Amino acid sequence: MQKYSLLDNSTVTFFFLVLVGIVNIFLPVHFLSLLLVGVVFTIFTQSLKNENYNSLTFMIIAFSIIELAQGLKLFSLSLVAFFIYIFISPLLKNILSSEKLVKIMVIFIFYIGIAILFSFLGEVSYELVAILLINYLIDIAIVSLLP
């Protein structure tokens, strides 16, 4: 039996897409946008796992909004998230026994992918690394609260 959370609902993901749009239009600061990236990635992976394509579409649009606000190439975060879900997540599921630990490691690898994307732009600084680390810790707290 599969547990469902609030993030599996398409209506909630649509309102989260609206929240991502509002935050990135009015507050295009690294901290808030990158905080939302971890939550978008979590919803993205859950919608892929549950085959909820409405939520998946909303999260790809949310990734696109964040990419445009941060100056990244279009669909780069979506491709990184999809690559991690398809190739890296099954390997970690085979190695690690705890599902929560797998989620935490996958989010960590996703943030490493974000840091690599920013390094392609040449914008890696101590501030960005600190923001990514703080957002990773916040995402650990969010993932630990989800079923």
Detailed description of the structure:
The chain is mostly helical and 147 residues long. It is built from six helices and no strands. The protein has helices at 10-26, 30-49, 53-70, 76-95, 99-121, 126-145. α1 (10-26) packs parallel to α3 (53-70), α2 (30-49) packs antiparallel against α3 and α4 (76-95) packs antiparallel against α5 (99-121). The radius of gyration is 14 Å and the shape is globular. The mean pLDDT is 86.
Question: What would the keywords be for this entry?
Answer:
6 helices; globular
Structure described in brief:
80% of the residues lie in helices and 0% in strands. With 147 residues, the chain is mostly helical.
Average pLDDT figure: 86
Order of helices and strands: HHHHHH
Could you list the spans in which at least 5 consecutive residues all have pLDDT below 50? none
Give the CA-CA distance, first to last residue: 12 Å
Helicity level, as a percent range? over 70%
Instruction: Write down the Rg.
Output: 14 Å
What's the β-strand tally? Answer: 0
Number of helical regions: 6
Structural class based on helices, strands and sheet pairing: mainly alpha
| Overall geometric form | globular
Tell me the strand percentage band.
under 5%
| Major β-sheet profile | none
